[in-house]
C-alpha cells in the first residue's frame, strides 16, 4: 500500500474541508447537478478520446497507485548477484529452485528460460519486448489520467456557464441571483478539485511507478543475460550498480 498517495489525498481533502467549514457549512458545497456535469462530462469526453479497452484499465491503474508493490532495486541487485554466484559454482540447473521464490513473473520467466537453455539472443528479444509492452501500458495509464485532469476543470467551466445562463434568465427576481451564482461557481470548484487533487497527481504518480518498474526490469534484463553468459558476479554487480546511481539519495553520492 502506498502511504504517500493515501496521506496526500486525505491531507488535501482535509484542508479543503477545513477551509470550507471555517467559513460556512458543508451544505453550500453539495450540489448534485454540478457533480453530474463534471463527473459525467469528464467520463464522456474520456470515452470519446480513448478506446473502451483503454478506459476499462482505470481500475487497474488506480490499483497501481495505491497498492503498488515492487522490490527495491538495491535488493534486486543483491538477489541477482546471489543467483549469479550460485550458477557460477553449481551450473545453471542449480538455480532452478530459486525460481519458485520469485514473485515477479518477468524475473521468474527470464530465469526459467535461462535454466531451460534458451539462446541468449532469444532471451534478450523476449525480455525487450516485455519491457516495451510494460512501457506502453504505463504511458497509456498516465496519459489517460492526464487527459481526465484536463477535462474535469473544463467541464467545471461548462457547468459554471450553464449556471450563469440560468441566473441571467431570472434577473427579474433579484432574490435568486445570489444562490444561483453560488451554484454556478461550485461546478468550477468540483472540476478544479477533481483535476488537481485526483487526476493530475495520479498521472504523475503513474509516471513515477512506471519508471520504477522499468528500472527493475532493466536490472533483471542485464542480470539474467549476465548469468546466462556466465559472467563473473562481481562484473555483473558493477554493471547493475550503474543503474542505481540516480536512485540513491544525494548524501550517498558524496
From TrEMBL:
<dbReference type="InterPro" id="IPR002898">
    <property type="entry name" value="MotA_ExbB_proton_chnl"/>
</dbReference>
<keyword id="KW-0472">Membrane</keyword>
<feature type="transmembrane region" description="Helical">
    <location>
        <begin position="35"/>
        <end position="52"/>
    </location>
</feature>
<keyword id="KW-0283">Flagellar rotation</keyword>
<dbReference type="InterPro" id="IPR047055">
    <property type="entry name" value="MotA-like"/>
</dbReference>
<feature type="transmembrane region" description="Helical">
    <location>
        <begin position="142"/>
        <end position="169"/>
    </location>
</feature>
<keyword id="KW-1003">Cell membrane</keyword>
<protein>
    <submittedName>
        <fullName>Chemotaxis protein MotA</fullName>
    </submittedName>
</protein>
<dbReference type="Pfam" id="PF01618">
    <property type="entry name" value="MotA_ExbB"/>
</dbReference>
<feature type="transmembrane region" description="Helical">
    <location>
        <begin position="181"/>
        <end position="200"/>
    </location>
</feature>
<comment type="similarity">
    <text>Belongs to the MotA family.</text>
</comment>
<dbReference type="GO" id="GO:0071978">
    <property type="term" value="P:bacterial-type flagellum-dependent swarming motility"/>
</dbReference>
<feature type="domain" description="MotA/TolQ/ExbB proton channel">
    <location>
        <begin position="100"/>
        <end position="217"/>
    </location>
</feature>
<keyword id="KW-1133">Transmembrane helix</keyword>
<keyword id="KW-0813">Transport</keyword>
<dbReference type="GO" id="GO:0005886">
    <property type="term" value="C:plasma membrane"/>
</dbReference>
<feature type="transmembrane region" description="Helical">
    <location>
        <begin position="7"/>
        <end position="29"/>
    </location>
</feature>
<keyword id="KW-0812">Transmembrane</keyword>
<dbReference type="GO" id="GO:0006935">
    <property type="term" value="P:chemotaxis"/>
</dbReference>
<dbReference type="InterPro" id="IPR000540">
    <property type="entry name" value="Flag_MotA_CS"/>
</dbReference>
